[in-house]
Amino acid sequence: MTQPVPLEVIPERRDAVAGTVLDTAIEWRLRLDDSVDTEQASNVRRQFEHWLHASPAHLDAWALLDSGLGRTMGPLRTALTGSDGTLRNSLLHPERMRRRFMRRALALGAVGSGLAWFVHRQVPLPNLLADLGTGTAQRSQHTLPDGTEILLDARSRVDLRFDGRQRLVHLLAGAIQVRTGADMTRPFLVATAQGQVQALGTEFMVRQETGASQVLVQRDRVQVQALSGRQVDLQAGQGVRFRADGIDAVRTDMQGDSAWQDGLLEVNDRALPEVIDTLRAYYPGVLRVSPAVAGIRVSGVFPLDDPMRALRALAHTAPIEVRRYTPWVMLVQRKDELS
């Protein structure tokens, strides 16, 4: 029987936590900037202070963001209004120039609130520090040095650490589908903020959620180990969610959760806010959800690559209405809220 790889040999997991928290810190930076001189400024500031002091990791992420991204707007404004128009053209052609633009903007240390929001919605800013990453509405296939094939879902990122002892993938955000390459001498591991998944000659999916990780096995088996030390073996067709302190019951009804590989969102009796949260990775703007829809549950198959069509389908099957306030902002609310 294959022995589990001790968690101690996996490098510091702070990177995985910091990546997720840094996303949230960026969102707070943008919310604070956008609320300046508005009636909501004091309320937004109170909410931010509550988030900031809720965890030492939040303080670390905020310090990192402040030291690197928030220095000055001057150089960036100059670049945007310069005679050659290079940086402005980067915004007009994000697919072609996205990476070049982000490197220049970060080198200037000057990402302004509106501009940063636009870029962050296209490509999450922490992706620039990751080995592999995807932007909004983008899935990407890669072949690793050992022959392993890895598919990244939209707005996902990973770091890789392959050495003589192990093949390690840090899942920092989003989801990956893995088909492991043959290597009998080095274990293949996926590390998340809550623990690790050890492949035992297999094909499987791992998703990093907020406060939890999800694993689904399509072929052969894997071993899941939470940071607390609890372990469980999963066979093909089985899935589980786990947190740092434990592992939920093994399930056999999670196959639909891997439909994103085919550009689909398949749900069965799932809370509407969770469905909208999945669509956010494929929508370049802001999708706001009214608290009044929290109790609505939906089932169906929806197209991830066409989030507007998915939202229209949801509006036909659930008591909701989708309101578009700008090309970049939409609100999902109950129909009875409009009366």
What does this molecule look like?
Residues 8-18 and 68-113 have low confidence and may be disordered. The chain has three domains: 14-130, no CATH class; 133-255, Jelly Rolls, CATH 2.60.120.1440; 263-338, 3-Layer(bab) Sandwich (Phage tail protein beta-alpha-beta fold). It is an alpha+beta fold and 339 residues long. It contains nine helices and 16 strands. It has helices spanning 14-35, 41-52, 56-68, 74-81, 86-92, 94-108, 113-122, 272-280, 307-317; strands at 132-133, 140-143, 149-152, 157-162, 167-179, 188-191, 195-208, 213-226, 231-235, 239-243, 246-247, 264-271, 286-289, 297-303, 320-326, 329-334.
Task: Catalogue the unreliable spans.
Answer: 8-18, 68-113
Computed over alpha carbons, the radius of gyration is 21 Å
Given the C-alpha coordinates, what overall shape results? globular
Q: Which structural class do the helices and strands define?
A: alpha+beta
Number of H- or I-type helical stretches: 9
- The biggest beta sheet, please? 11 strands, mixed
User: What's the helix-strand series?
Assistant: HHHHHHHEEEEEEEEEEEEHEEHEE
CATH class of the largest domain, named: Mainly Beta
Kindly report the oligomeric state of this protein.
Answer: single chain
State the end-to-end CA separation. 63 Å
CATH architecture of the largest domain: Sandwich
Helix content: 25-40%
What is the CATH topology of the largest domain?
A: Jelly Rolls
Q: Beta-sheet strand percentage? A: 25-35%
- Number of strand segments: 16
Q: Indicate how many domains the architecture comprises.
A: 3
Mean pLDDT: 79
